[in-house]
Amino acid sequence: MDDHVYKIIELSGSSQTSIEDAIQNAVGRAARTLKHLRWCEVIQTRGHIEDGKVQHYQVVVKIGFTVDDGNVSA
């Protein structure tokens, strides 16, 4: 197995549908501009409440991706 070096970024994703959808939104957005995404860790979850119901979900995720020669400053 090769040794890997990871860069870790922190993003906030949101959704009116679900926590899972908020996670997918954050990861999907990162995937549009970053290469070699390898893992994510949900570190916070929140919900916006209106009229006694959760109306909006928000998550903060750490996303790790492998660093290679062309990907060190991302």
Which strands sit side by side, in order, in the main sheet?
1-3-2
Would you tell me the structural class of the helices and strands? alpha+beta
Radius of gyration: 15 Å
- Residue share in helix: 10-25%
Report the mean per-residue pLDDT as an integer. Answer: 91
- Low confidence ranges: none
Protein architecture, described:
The protein is of the alpha+beta class. Helix content is 20%, strand content 51%. The chain has a three-stranded antiparallel β-sheet with strand order 1-3-2, covered by helices on one side. It is elongated, with a radius of gyration of 15 Å.
How would you describe this structure in keywords?
alpha+beta; 1 helix; 74 residues
Topology at a glance:
Elements: E1 6-15, H1 19-33, E2 37-50, E3 53-66
Antiparallel strand pairs: 1-3, 2-3
